Amino acid sequence: MWRWMLKEKMEAVRRKMEEAAKVLGLGHPKVYQLSRELDQLHNQWEKECARRKSEKIYRIHPHASQTKERAQIKMYNVG
Question: Is the pTM of this model over 0.70?
Protein backbone atom coordinates (compact mmCIF):
# COMPACT_ATOMS: atom_id res chain seq x y z
CA MET A 1 0.00 0.00 0.00
CA TRP A 2 2.76 2.49 0.92
CA ARG A 3 4.41 1.86 -2.44
CA TRP A 4 1.37 2.78 -4.52
CA MET A 5 0.58 5.93 -2.50
CA LEU A 6 4.16 7.19 -2.55
CA LYS A 7 4.50 6.45 -6.27
CA GLU A 8 1.34 8.42 -7.02
CA LYS A 9 2.52 11.36 -4.92
CA MET A 10 5.92 11.34 -6.64
CA GLU A 11 4.31 11.36 -10.07
CA ALA A 12 1.93 14.19 -9.09
CA VAL A 13 4.81 16.35 -7.82
CA ARG A 14 6.87 15.54 -10.93
CA ARG A 15 4.02 16.62 -13.20
CA LYS A 16 3.53 19.85 -11.22
CA MET A 17 7.25 20.56 -11.44
CA GLU A 18 7.33 20.00 -15.21
CA GLU A 19 4.32 22.27 -15.75
CA ALA A 20 5.76 24.97 -13.51
CA ALA A 21 9.08 24.79 -15.38
CA LYS A 22 7.30 25.19 -18.72
CA VAL A 23 5.38 28.24 -17.53
CA LEU A 24 7.81 29.88 -15.10
CA GLY A 25 11.21 28.67 -16.32
CA LEU A 26 13.71 26.30 -14.74
CA GLY A 27 15.24 28.90 -12.42
CA HIS A 28 11.98 29.91 -10.74
CA PRO A 29 11.81 29.38 -6.93
CA LYS A 30 8.54 27.40 -7.27
CA VAL A 31 10.23 24.91 -9.62
CA TYR A 32 13.14 24.61 -7.19
CA GLN A 33 10.74 24.01 -4.28
CA LEU A 34 8.91 21.28 -6.19
CA SER A 35 12.24 19.71 -7.15
CA ARG A 36 13.27 19.56 -3.50
CA GLU A 37 9.90 18.07 -2.57
CA LEU A 38 10.37 15.39 -5.24
CA ASP A 39 13.89 14.70 -3.90
CA GLN A 40 12.50 14.24 -0.40
CA LEU A 41 9.86 11.82 -1.66
CA HIS A 42 12.48 9.89 -3.61
CA ASN A 43 14.68 9.70 -0.49
CA GLN A 44 11.69 8.41 1.45
CA TRP A 45 11.17 5.78 -1.25
CA GLU A 46 14.81 4.69 -1.06
CA LYS A 47 14.69 4.53 2.73
CA GLU A 48 11.59 2.31 2.63
CA CYS A 49 13.13 0.07 0.01
CA ALA A 50 16.35 -0.25 1.98
CA ARG A 51 14.30 -1.25 4.98
CA ARG A 52 12.57 -3.87 2.86
CA LYS A 53 15.78 -5.10 1.22
CA SER A 54 14.07 -7.29 -1.32
CA GLU A 55 12.40 -4.36 -3.12
CA LYS A 56 13.84 -2.26 -5.94
CA ILE A 57 14.09 1.53 -6.07
CA TYR A 58 11.52 3.26 -8.26
CA ARG A 59 12.95 4.91 -11.38
CA ILE A 60 11.36 8.24 -12.18
CA HIS A 61 11.49 7.59 -15.94
CA PRO A 62 11.48 3.80 -16.38
CA HIS A 63 10.99 4.15 -20.15
CA ALA A 64 14.41 5.77 -20.72
CA SER A 65 16.80 3.40 -22.44
CA GLN A 66 20.29 2.77 -21.11
CA THR A 67 21.87 3.97 -24.34
CA LYS A 68 19.95 7.24 -24.12
CA GLU A 69 21.07 7.65 -20.49
CA ARG A 70 24.68 6.89 -21.43
CA ALA A 71 24.54 9.43 -24.25
CA GLN A 72 23.31 12.08 -21.82
CA ILE A 73 26.06 11.23 -19.35
CA LYS A 74 28.73 11.40 -22.08
CA MET A 75 27.33 14.76 -23.17
CA TYR A 76 28.11 16.23 -19.73
CA ASN A 77 31.56 14.64 -19.32
CA VAL A 78 34.40 17.07 -19.83
CA GLY A 79 37.67 15.85 -21.26
Answer: no
